[in-house]
Amino acid sequence: MQIQVLKSKLHRVKVTQADLNYIGSITIDSELMVAANLIEGEKVQIVNINNGERLETYVITGEKGSGEICLNGPAARKVSVGDLVIIISYAILDFEEAKTFKPTVVFPNETNNSLNV
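Above: the chain's sequence. Below: its structure in token form.
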């Protein structure tokens, strides 16, 4: 049996931009991506702490060290610049492997830097 478990989480990052006219996705600072074990194109769930919205999209690599968290396309309607969001990815693992798997959880500061894992 396989189950879906938490793989990675960026907890309480601040939205820095919302670009309605982009084709879609979320752009994330590449340093944050590395810290959270995320890759470009990976499916993520976005949970908006400010308004309760939840959505799924995929990751685009942003500029290293920029602190960028930009919701693009239709997802831009689900956030406001300054909102705090949680970015979550999941993995499908064998049930026994899942029992010992340790997810990567990152707690950035208010400028989306100074990573605490």
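Strands lie at 2-14, 17-19, 25-29, 43-48, 54-62, 69-72, 84-94, 104-106.
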